[in-house]
Automatic annotation (TrEMBL):
Organism: Fluviispira sanaruensis
Keywords: Membrane, Transmembrane, Transmembrane helix
Compositionally biased intervals (Acidic residues): 287-303
Alphabetized InterPro entries for the sequence: Alkaline_phosphatase_core_sf (IPR017850)
Protein name from the UniProt record: Uncharacterized protein
Stretch list, region Disordered: 285-327
Length: 911
């Protein structure tokens, strides 16, 4: 009997096919969402965590501004216009520091006649040492150092320099007397309740702080009403607090000062629509009155609004004065603050343009493909913000030489000596940056009245990365971190008073109510302890960069969105100041997390070819991700109403090196209102050239080609120099460096009484000259060898120096003998060879692999070379080590592990 074959029903087949299809779609969706997280609908950035399925971004500052305007529509038209007019008035005001408590001198701290606070307790708050010294006027031998106070947030930590004042202490400073309004601005962080008094000349500001104010950062601005006040005193009568980022500010009405455009500029052209004066000098005769000068001043100070909304323009511009007055009474017209984008311009015969006092925003982005930058159509689709910026900017295309280390490039903008910025050379970095203040961009800008903020990961400043891992510690924000907690009985009794319904204007324009600070519990102390342990690691090796404020971002997957959020928050509090914002957007490629929206943009850009280029999809999505970050920064600048006075520079590293394995970046420079010249053919620029150009553009003379330059920043002001002239000077400098390659050899010998023998220095090709010694223990053999006899002088430090020309100093890699220019040898076999110690780090000869034929030049320099300015310090350290070894050997004479030998220190100094 033949069995019938069973057939699958159509319904079953449909179910199987549908299940397979759904399963495949689900797997593909999971794979895509793992690498391309889903964009959140509600941008609740504050509560975001490291989820693989959400990619939260902070709400754009410009969107917040539009949202605020929509909310204002509920109020009367007069109220809307009043607030708009206040914004316009605020745009003209700058609070410029003329005295910085943590930068300038003449600051003293002392005890006063007032009583101390009742309960000064140990404060468990993360602190780092700072450099500013405050002397005691009553006892000059007693001084106190400032501290860097750390404020953790969910996604970053802020570090601000401050000084602790306990009850009964005061700090005073001699402040400059200037015409105009002055104010004392500072941030107060209260530790205990109590009274504080500030003497500002003849006027006194006093305030009593309650328990509600403890553990809160309060920004205070106190007007100095006494125009003759030259001394300021801050007195803690019965409170303990930190005074942070304190300065005396001068109120200026120059936020819309015109740009002075050079007629000789090699980078910029004037904008004819904004030009209000020419190079012609008008000299009025004696018969003319001063009305001409008044007219010119009025013309220079008028505002040129390039973008005015049609509905805000006067309806009858050509009407008579009486008619215009009637129109103004009937129709209230206020210019839109967001529409005023550019300042006026004045043509001058100066060699470079100057945008006096403008803000500077420096942005360093991740690497981008050079091919995409060249394709304008593709770039406009993928990265509209970057494409628009390129059209408005002076572009140094593929011309800025950079390092492969993103953090080192970030540091090059701060400190101009790049040889000290390597992460492997932290102790030298600390010393050099602290001593060479004239090479520090941050300090230069602070001296000229700028507020400086650095927004980066902790490693960029040599901080330990744990300083920003504050998610657990941020939960303690607002709690009482004192050893003995204060009682909360008074707070509870005041709850009903705070909850009384608001009336009148308070009901319409609500103010933020104070929250009650909860007490800490026993489980919070381990979190505090762990955080402090991480913060304190390697803190002695951190140099003093000296910005007003560090913002250290968590180095996690959400690094770039967190950086944008920090910039938005900081500018909201500092939009009335003149500032430098130094932003590091650059991060590891695997930490960039494009969303499905970026993925879709990549597929649409590539079209059908995306099927054959799956890896290029990810690259384009990353560029779209970075472009969104740039868009947030530009929107923030516009929303804060500072677009008209903010210079933007973007350092855009390229993804491929050239044939000589050198890395380059494209520089994008935008000054509002100026028209860039195209085809800038500068080659092999460095970051110091960009720094000198930016600082000179805002009125700070910096650069090798600037006559009145007061800084040691080693760069050229590019607007004053032509491309050919720049290359000639670069080549001349390189030739001078190569011609003057000499080595100074320094040797220190501590001969042992028994185990010592003579030895010889054999130069390779170069002659020996300039031999000096503090004891006669050497002889020169026909200028071709130098022999030493240390046994003749015992128990003394023998110091010798000589010079040689070094022909192989420019080699990328060399044999050790070639690099040093010679080698040591012995006339006879001896059983106990001397100990050699080399360089700053006092590296023992046994630690160096001499059996290698070659070593990299970088390794050789690190082991042997010592700069001339560090030579005395290295010799001192060497002597101390030799003394310590002698004491140990004498106390352990019978130990088999101790062998007394002659000790030799050897230093090579390039000249």
């Amino acid at each position: 009997m033949v069995l019938k074959s069973s057939r699958i029903s159509k319904l079953t087949l449909y179910i199987i096919i549908s299940s397979i299809t759904l399963l495949s779609i689900l797997i593909i969706t999971l794979i895509i969402t793992y690498f391309f997280p889903i964009q959140t609908v509600a941008n609740n950035f504050n509560t975001a965590r490291d989820s693989q399925f959400i990619a939260p971004w902070p709400t754009s500052a410009l969107e917040q501004e539009y949202s605020e305007r929509r909310r204002l529509k509920r109020y009367a038209k007069s109220e809307q216009m009043r607030r708009m007019e206040k914004q316009l008035q605020r745009m003209e005001i700058l609070n410029t520091p003329i005295y910085d408590l943590f930068l300038d001198s003449n600051v003293e701290i002392s005890n006063t006649r007032y009583m101390t606070s009742l309960e000064d307790t140990a404060f468990l708050w993360p602190l780092l040492p700072a450099k500013k010294l405050f002397y005691n006027s009553l006892n000059p031998n007693i001084f106190r150092k400032s501290s860097n106070v750390i404020f953790p947030y969910p996604h970053w930590s802020t570090v601000i320099e401050g000084l602790l004042l306990l009850g009964g202490e005061e700090i005073k400073a001699t402040i400059p007397v200037v015409r105009g309004r002055r104010s004392f601005n500072f941030t107060l962080f209260l530790l205990t309740p109590g009274n504080i008094r500030i003497n500002l000349g003849q006027y006194v500001w006093a305030k009593t702080f309650t328990e509600d104010d403890v553990q809160k950062r309060m920004k205070l601005s106190i007007p100095i009403n006494d125009t003759t006040a030259s001394i300021i005193k801050v007195i803690s009568i019965s409170s303990s607090f930190y005074i942070l980022d304190a300065s005396v500010n001068h109120t200026e009405h120059n936020a819309r000062s015109p740009i002075r455009v050079s007629s000789q500029s090699t980078i910029w052209n004037p904008n004819k629509n904004l030009l209000i004066a020419s190079t012609k000098k008008i000299t009025p005769t004696a018969n003319e009155d001063d009305s001409l000068n008044e007219e010119v001043d009025d013309e220079e100070n008028q505002f040129v609004d390039e973008q005015k909304p049609d509905e805000l323009k006067p309806e009858e511009a050509t009407s008579t004065n009486n008619q215009s007055k009637q129109v103004k009474k009937k129709n209230i017209t206020i210019n839109d603050p967001l529409a005023q984008t550019n300042n006026s311009q004045i043509m001058t015969d100066e060699p470079y343009s100057t945008a006096f006092g403008y803000n500077i925003v420096i942005i360093q982005t991740p690497k981008i493909s050079e091919n995409i930058l060249k394709n304008k159509k593709k770039l406009a689709k993928i990265s509209p913000h970057l494409s628009s910026l390129l059209e408005q900017s002076a572009v140094f295309s593929k011309s800025i030489s950079i390092s492969d280390n993103a953090n080192e490039n970030f540091r090059r903008f701060i400190f101009s000596d790049q040889k000290y910025l390597n992460s492997d050379n932290i102790p030298i970095t600390k010393e050099e940056i602290n001593e060479k203040k004239a090479k520090n961009t941050y300090l230069e800008l602070r001296k000229y009245g700028y507020d400086v903020v650095g927004i980066a990961n902790p490693e960029a400043y040599f901080y330990n990365k744990q300083i920003a891992d504050s998610s657990d510690f941020a939960n303690l924000k607002g709690k009482w971190l004192e050893k003995n907690e204060w009682t909360f009985s008074k707070k509870n009794s005041q709850i009903d008073d705070r909850n009384i319904p608001a009336q009148g204007l308070e009901a319409i324009f609500k103010t933020k109510s104070k929250e009650i600070s909860p007490s800490i519990t026993q489980k919070d102390f381990p979190i505090i302890s762990n955080f402090l342990t991480g913060v304190s690691q390697n803190i002695d090796a951190v140099p003093e960069w000296a910005p007003n404020q560090y913002i250290l971002i968590n180095n996690k997957n959400l690094y770039i969105p967190r950086t944008i959020d920090a910039f938005q928050n900081w500018t909201l509090e500092n939009q009335q100041t003149r500032f430098l914002a130094h932003i590091l957007l650059d991060t590891d490629a695997q930490l960039i997390r494009p969303t499905l929206k970026d993925l879709g943009k990549s597929i649409l850009t590539l079209g059908f070819s995306s099927v054959f280029n799956p890896f290029q999809i990810d690259d384009i999505a990353n560029i779209s991700f970075v472009d969104r970050a740039l868009g947030h920064i530009f929107d923030t600048i516009k929303a804060r109403k500072i677009e008209n006075r903010t210079i933007v520079f973007v350092l855009q590293p390229l993804d491929k090196a050239d044939s000589k394995n050198r890395l380059f970046a494209t520089g994008i420079l935008k000054i509002p209102g100026l028209i860039p010249k195209k085809n800038l053919n500068f080659e092999n620029l460095n970051i110091n050239d960009i720094t000198a150009t930016l600082l000179t553009n805002v009125g700070i003379p910096v650069g090798k080609n600037i006559d009145n330059s007061q800084s040691e920043i080693e760069g050229f002001m590019l607007e004053k120099i032509k491309q050919k002239e720049y290359q000639e000077k670069k080549n001349l400098t390189q030739e001078l460096v190569e011609k003057n390659k000499f080595f100074k050899y320094t040797m220190m010998i501590k001969a042992d009484e028994k185990n010592c023998a003579s030895f010889i220095w054999n130069p390779r090709k170069e002659k020996i000259f300039g031999v000096q010694a503090n004891f006669p223990v050497n002889q020169l053999i026909f200028d071709s060898a130098l022999e030493f006899f240390p046994c003749s002088i015992k128990n003394k430090f023998i110091q010798l120096t000589w010079y040689q020309r070094n022909e192989n100093s420019n080699m990328a890699s060399a044999n050790i003998d070639d690099f040093l220019g010679g080698n040591f040898s012995y006339r006879k076999n001896i059983t106990s060879l001397p100990y050699f110690y080399f360089g700053n780090s006092i590296t023992s000869s046994e630690s160096i692999p001499f059996y290698f034929d070659t070593m990299t030049r970088q390794n050789l320099e690190k082991i042997f070379l010592v700069e001339e300015k560090n030579l005395k310090r290295s010799q001192k350290i060497l002597k101390e080590n030799f003394y310590a070894i002698d004491i140990f050997e004498k106390s352990n004479l019978n130990s088999p592990n101790v062998t007394n030998r002659t000790k030799i220190g050897f230093f090579v100094t390039p000249l």
